[in-house]
Amino acid sequence: MARVVLQRISKSYPGVKALDDIDLVIETGEFFTLLGPSGCGKTTLLRTIAGFNRHDSGHVLIGGRNVDDVPAYRRDIGMVYQDYAIFPHLSVSDNVAFGLKTRSRPRPEIAERVARALDLVQLGGHAKRLPHELSGGQQQRVALARAMVINPQILLMDEPLSNLDAKLRIELRDDIRALQRSLGITTIYVTHDQEEALVISDRICVMQGGRVHQVASPQNLYARPATVFVASFVGTMNVLADCQVGPGGALSLGRRPCVLSSLAGRARVTLAIRPEEVILPDAVEQADAISLDGVIDRVTFAGREAFYRIGCGDGLAILAHVHRPSERRLAAAGDTIRVALPISRLHAFDPADGSRIDLGRSDPER
Amino acid sequence: MKLRLDIWTGVLVVTVAVAAVLLIWPLSGIFWASFIDNSTGDVTLANYARALGHPFYQTALINSLIVGFGGMLGATLLGIPLAVLTTRYVIFGRDLLSTLAVLALVSPPFIGAYAWIMMLGQNGFLRAPLAEIGIAVPSIYGFFGIILVFSLKFYPFVYLLTASGLGTISASVEEAAEGLGAGTWRRFFTVTLPLVFPAVSSGALLAFVLSIADFGTPSIVGGRVRVLATTTYNLYTSELGGNPGLGSATSIVLIVVSMTVVALQRWAVRRRNVAGALIRKPVPVRLRPLRSAAAHGLCYAIVLISSLPSLVVIYTSFRRTSGPVFQSGFGFDSYVRILREVPHVIGNSFNYSLIAVLLIVMLGTLVGYILARRETAVAGALDSLLLIPYIVPGVVMGLAFVVVFNVPPLELTGTATIIVLMLFIRRLPYAVRASASMLKQIKGNIEEAAISLGASPGHAFLRITMPLMLPGIVAGALMSFITAINELSSSLILYVGRTMTMPVRIYLSVLDGEFGTAAALSTILLATTGIAVYAVFWLSGRKESAFV
Ligand SMILES: Nc1ncnc2c1ncn2[C@@H]1O[C@H](COP(=O)(O)OP(=O)(O)OP(=O)(O)O)[C@@H](O)[C@H]1O
Ligand SMILES: [Mg+2]
């Protein structure tokens, strides 16, 4: 268990800046997730921490010790891969015992710890099997046991659930989280699935193009995205890109003009709002809201919830969440509708660099 | 970037040194020699002027191209139908067909050459019966014989590579073509064949390169047809009028021809590496009875005809002889004779091949690892360097060794060492490639997983990667052994009486008309080879592709 500190890490491949000046601190015992689209550098960063690739500049500190020149096999890490990387010629228990043997632990201790680890991942009865006699989910459990049994300082996982089907993914996700909590291992987890990241993490680092956009708890990330990119990558977000701002922060959107004084002095702004914050007509007419008329062009019913996609002219489409759809009559495609975007629920971003603009009010979630 | 000083750096240095001494030095020796005038010792272009300008050598070059393309065409025409029929349709005894094809492939070609003489030569035992049923076979000596032997010898390359290529085309692709209205033939020519073109063409390329490099076949059944390989050999070895400078120039011409064809093939497949995700394995179709009989007939005819030489050789070895003359009846006379007259030849063959294979395995495995796992510039250069032995004919390689290793500091001519080193460098690339391709199937992160668990890189290699590679290494070793023990052309140049090997003895016996002893030695070679082939099959889980 250790704290991991990354100082100004950069790494280039021919033609790409895979990591661009990354500064991060991962606290002891934390479940920390690297989230971002394909190619954003998550794997590169993880492998830099593991010691499998050398960064061009910057420093990696594990437990306060600079490990820049420490080879991977001396960093005391546990690693779990997307494609399991189980040793195919070794039995389940030999796979799990591998790390203990390299550490020259006494035999009885190895046997005892392997048995305990296999029980933890619910594979107690499969110790003598060979990997090809296991399902994908079971193989990943072996990999997990193998990484955890050595009690590493940090546990690194690169999209460990991506190869599993949806149901198994949720099951193993919850198991991983429970195990990590009970053992208290500092864990760095890579995924491109934002939902998985929100559910599993203590904190999330959102990356894009080798840069860190935001590091925050799942709640904060969702409620206060630091950039337009984070806003649209995490959860669903309606983005009203590059809107004109009048004098004093007047917005010329919708039926009635409304004023956002904190935008005063700006020429343009990008606004965003989550579908569940969009207010549908039967609710009370809102005073402090941008009000738009539109035509529903698609209705999506998903049981617990439903969505309207509403075309509001000028190529602007707003996705609105319908609460408890079974308790109301759903509109049909082609119906005209009026929606309200409450000012208090709007996010605003600078169209030039995508950074968040503080609208000068405290968020209700905080 | 920091320079990584681990065992792999050491391996790299050793390999580069080996390649420099055993490849670059001899070949630059022969390159240099090609510019030296035979009588005056001056630097000159006269050798090339003669090699390319004199009608005698022009004919040899043209003949080489004729037998090269002829062998390639024949191999392709036999190999493709066999591959298509056995992968797409239900053919009984597929394993038997593959095994026989592989046996035909690994037996030395000159055995085929003289067996065909026994069958179709002037007094061949098949000539009269064939004439009776109205088939007039042209003289076996000359182009017909050479191309016949090459076609029947090298078609398994095309067959095996094409069959494995066909196995990776998803059934859906061909079905889609059929759904779009393409009939069987149209589908084959517009979809299937283009998709397997890379495989077909690499098989054809191998047939071409080996055909123009082959020395034994043209000198046994060539009659008056001289090719570059035989001409080069004579230029070096003839007692009178030998001309090493000219021989070097013809060697270089031979290398350039090979290289050009290799480059052409690479260019032709440059964008064709379209290995898609294999969704659905094609399932062989059952043919209607009449067609099925025809398909079986064709497959078995190809394979049995190509196995005929081996059967003839084995049969001949057990005929009674008195001296070089065959008597009626059977006996072990020929075997008794070789045990009495040339027992050391058998021992030499096994010793040299085994030592060479041992060296090949040790270095080949490690170098294969570097090529598969390290993407450094040096590794890339090494990869190209190791292409050289594929391209350079055995005759040329043998001559190159003679040129540089007959003077101090490395005066090796006449020793067993030089033969072992030759076998080693000629077969090393095959082992390297086998181990690299084996490694590419083992995911790199398995090794990393071991490292993350605290194993040092060397330890991870020994405990995880090596055990996974082992079947591949052993299969590769057996393959190297098979080709090493059957090697003729370079040994023929490097041997002295003491260091004679079985193929050399067989070749000399055939030239002396001692068919009995030649057959007995050939049978020993065939039996050894057969056992090794069986072991490879067993180790690689019946994958014929292990042989190409
Ligand atoms: N060995 C390499 N050589 C060259 N470029 C590389 C190498 N490894 C990664 N890259 C590049 O670096 C960038 C980041 O790659 P990385 O594998 O870290 O992405 P990722 O976030 O893990 O993506 P994914 O979600 O698809 O796994 C990509 O543009 C990739 O093409
Ligand atoms: Mg990745």
| CATH topology grouping of the largest domain in chain A | Rossmann fold
Number of continuous helical runs of chain A = 8
Structural class of chain A: alpha+beta
| Protein structure class of chain B | mainly alpha
Count structural domains of chain B. Answer: 2
| Largest sheet: number of strands, sense, barrel closure of chain A | 6 strands, mixed
The CATH architecture of the largest domain in chain B can be named as: Orthogonal Bundle
Task: Report how far apart the termini of chain A are.
Answer: 31 Å
Gyration radius of chain B, in Å = 24 Å
Average pLDDT, all residues of chain A: 89
**Which pair of protein chains has the largest interface, and what are the residue counts?**
A-B, 28 and 21 residues
Strand order of the largest sheet of chain B: 1-2
Tally of separate helices of chain B: 24
Summary?
The complex is a heterodimer of chains A (366) and B (548). Chain A has 366 residues and is an alpha+beta fold.
Question: Could you list some keywords that capture this structure?
Answer:
heterodimer, A: alpha+beta, Rossmann fold, OB fold (Dihydrolipoamide Acetyltransferase, E2P), 6-stranded mixed beta sheet, 4-stranded antiparallel beta sheet, 8 helices, 20 strands, B: 548 residues, mainly alpha, MetI-like fold, 2 domains, 24 helices, globular, binds adenosine-5'-triphosphate
Task: Explain this structure.
The complex is a heterodimer of chains A (366) and B (548). Chain A has 366 residues and is an alpha+beta fold. Chain A has two domains: 4-223, 3-Layer(aba) Sandwich (Rossmann fold); 236-357, RNA polymerase II/Efflux pump adaptor protein, barrel-sandwich hybrid domain (OB fold (Dihydrolipoamide Acetyltransferase, E2P)). Helices cover 23% and strands 31% of the residues of chain A. Chain A has helices at residues 42-50, 92-102, 107-120, 136-149, 166-183, 194-200, 218-223, 228-233, and strands at residues 4-13, 16-26, 31-35, 57-62, 65-66, 77-80, 154-158, 186-191, 203-208, 211-216, 238-244, 250-251, 258-259, 268-273, 289-301, 306-311, 317-322, 336-342, 347-349, 356-357. A six-stranded mixed sheet of chain A has the order 6-7-8-3-9-10, sandwiched between helices. The longest helix of chain A is centred in the middle third of the chain and has 18 residues, at 166-183. Chain A is elongated and about 75 Å long. Chain B is an all-alpha fold. Chain B has two domains: 1-26 and 318-548, MetI-like fold (Orthogonal Bundle); 34-107 and 142-309, MetI-like (MetI-like fold, Orthogonal Bundle). Helix content of chain B is 74%, strand content 2%. Chain B contains 24 helices and two strands. Chain B has helices at residues 7-33, 46-53, 55-88, 94-106, 109-120, 127-132, 143-166, 171-179, 184-213, 216-221, 228-237, 244-268, 289-317, 333-341, 343-373, 377-385, 388-391, 394-405, 416-441, 444-452, 457-485, 489-494, 502-511, 515-539, and strands at residues 319-322, 325-330. In chain B, strands 1-2 form a two-stranded antiparallel ribbon. Chain B is globular. Classes of the chains: A alpha+beta (366), B mainly alpha (548). At the A-B interface, strand 6, helix 2 and helix 4 of A face helix 20 and helix 21 of B. Bound molecules: adenosine-5'-triphosphate and magnesium ion. Magnesium ion (MG) binds at residues 42-43, 158 of chain A. Adenosine-5'-triphosphate is lined by residues 13, 16, 18, 36, 38-44, 192 of chain A.
